[in-house]
Amino acid sequence: MKARRVDFIDRIWGFFTSLRLVIILLLVLSLLSVVGTVIEQNKPLQEYYRFFRPETVELFLKLGLLDMYHSWWFTSCLALLALNVIACTMERYPSIMKGLKTANVVLDEKLEAGLKDPAKIKYHLPAETVEKRVTELVKKIFPAGPIVTETQDARHFFYEKGRYTRLSFLLTHLSILIIFIGAIGGSIFGFKGYVNINEGSTISTIQTRKGENKALNFGVRCNSFNADYYETGAPKDYRSDLSVIRDGKEVLRQTIRVNDPLSYEGITFYQSSFGALPDNVTLEIRGKNDASHGTVVAPVGKQVDIPGSGIRIEVADYREHFHFPDGSEAGTAIGVNIFRPGAEPEGVWIYEAYPEKNNHWGYSFKVKGVKLQKYTGLQVNKDPGVWLVWTGCIMLVVGIMLAFFTSHKKLWIRIGKDRKGRVELTAGGMANKNKYAFSSEVARLFDSFREVS
To answer: Which strands make up the sheet holding 312-323, listed edge to edge?
Structure first.
């Protein structure tokens, strides 16, 4: 029973330390990142309704594809990758610590047998002269002084460089964990949302992706919005002139563009979109027998009376590109709430291009005009973990540079005498990485030893 339990634990440990798990997770995260690039994230919902059918938007919402980087399944992939990083670090930790310990500083026969292509050179010079000239040559590669050990028949010199480059593995893995902690911390303690601001208007609350209204400690005013277009009609550049209002005074003013946001008190406002929303809608209303009930100007978000009917209406929504249930294009549609005496409010869509479809409860509606007002769409982001993410990224770059371009190098030199009483030098070296380059470097050093005279 105990053996089975140990075997099960070994399998779990092997799963979390396997290279296969790393590859699968990186491929999945890469694929998800591509999806997150194709489907723009954290846009106002009306922006998605402009390009996708309503049922498609609802599916995206259920799957979390409109805010996938905060979805449970994306976070689970990150958590699994973090566990993999921790397990791999623990797996390699003993060998890394062993490599950091001071090696055998005496070049004995056992160590010599384990070195690749050690050099043996004999001199007709005093040992002191050989030692002085050889150590001067070694300083060009190993600036730090050697550890000198005297034995009964020789003097031993141990040189070492780059011992702590072995920690690059730990530094790289730690940086990944710090990035994850920063990202998760930003997700928990920060927020992402959006807001549309009409020209000349000021807002002090935003709506988060969770549908919550988040109050700010200040106001943001859109002084003006401008856009430039290519000849094809595609937007070339769009920008918003924003002011931060605190206690009734302007404390900051900045023109923002895409990738040139405004930041204040840890909250960043990105230029995300633009468009026009109705200020009011003019509707011609007819009742039974085509009797006219006149023309009503309905401001957005305010209830107005239908003359002579006892019914009130409210313009609640506006879609520039609406689709019928069968997927066909409906054009501009106005979302209207109808309030009848003694009944619950009901919402209907009124189509500008299809007045014959606008018959509801004995009344027909015809859109006579829509007064639009330009707005700027801002993505709002507060991420207290961003500095942890940046710190982790810097550590990651440093760790990768250390891992690829540095190594732990060791060199042993023994100066003694052979059986004929001549001075004999034995030398050899090793490195944990870039071994071919180091062996070439050591070979050139040994050639310089042979020229000592």
So the answer is: 303-305, 312-323, 329-339, 346-351
